[in-house]
Predict the 3D structure of the following.
Amino acid sequence: MTDQHGERRSAGELETSVLAALWGADRPLTSGEVREALDAGLARTTVTTILTRLHDKGMVDRSHQGRGYAYTPAADASGLHARRMHAELNRGEDHSSILARFVSDLSAEDEETLRELLENDEEPGK
């Protein structure tokens, strides 16, 4: 998985690029269409592998189209980031310490936003 200059890219960077291509589309895309959208000189098999891994992680949905699949993102960018945050939290054993450290590193503005979100979530009927 190298770019046009022969430098190796991380799998996370490729996954992010593939997701960006899917988010920018107005319809499901095949692996060939994602490859064209990326315009990065990647092999079709590389793009197909990335899409398969994203599907296995629950980050994209797929439906049969012809002999292959067409892919759509399972969530928007915010949903993806939230899913990643949950995954990181679930890797640790001491959730309280992890959350406390996370909150302690928030900016005042982010802390206020989090406080408002938590207060709104506690309203009856939600």
Helices lie at 11-23, 31-38, 44-56, 77-91, 95-104, 108-121.
